[in-house]
Write a structure and sequence with these properties.
207 residues, 10 strands, elongated, mainly beta
Length: 207
């Protein structure tokens, strides 16, 4: 099983002319998995994934103010293959390939103010699908023959993200409302390293 938690990262950027910007965010993910040794140093496994993200941002410029709040929860599963290589007694480096799939819901709210009066409200609600093909390297330390801790050294990922939903914008000045569809699909490539993506985990082994 593995767990990560990250704070301070925000995917939303205030307009460049906004001052006194205040950004905060938090996210966590858990991924318990179960594997079977198909050979002495090779594991084939399956697992469960759960991800939570919450970010907020506030900014101001003269008489204008803006705040933003995004939240999503994702659930899914994964398959993985891992191979161990001995470095020193009780220390191993492992290479792992995995295929992940997650789905869930996202909600985003934007509020614009002018002279402390709410002028625009925008609410986005959508369904998310995320799929990933990835590979990573891991340092594994066996505390005992049946228990180990591990530290991810990072890796590379190919991601597919799809979003479907609606955006609803309401203008208080003229009481007008605009509703539009949200449709997006994209593939991306990413890499992560120890310094910007710390991931700790542990494993139980049964014989």
């Amino acid at each position: 099983a593995s767990f990560y938690s990250r704070n301070g990262e925000n995917s939303y950027t205030q307009p460049f002319y906004y001052q006194n910007s205040n950004n905060k965010s938090s996210s966590w993910s858990i991924s318990p998995n179960f594997g079977y040794f198909i050979r002495e140093n090779q594991i084939l496994g399956i697992g469960f994934l759960a991800t939570h993200h919450d970010s907020q941002s506030e900014g101001s410029y003269q008489t204008l103010k803006n705040n933003y709040h995004n939240k999503y929860n994702l659930y899914g599963g994964q398959t993985l293959y891992r191979k161990y290589f001995l470095l020193a007694p009780k220390f191993y480096i492992a290479t792992e390939g995995n295929i992940n799939f997650q789905t869930g819901k996202s909600s985003t709210t934007y509020n614009d103010f002018n002279n402390d009066t709410l002028s625009t409200i925008r609410v986005d609600k959508s369904n998310l699908i995320k799929a990933q093909l990835g590979g990573k390297a891991i340092i594994v330390y066996f505390i005992s023959p049946k228990f180990s801790t591990e530290l991810s050294l990072g890796g590379i990922n190919i991601d597919y993200n799809r979003q479907r939903g609606t955006t609803n914008q309401f203008n208080t000045s003229d009481q007008s409302e605009n509703i539009n569809d949200i449709k997006s699909s994209e593939f991306s490539f990413s890499s992560s390293f120890f310094f910007n993506n710390i991931s700790l985990g542990f494993q139980f082994y049964f014989q």
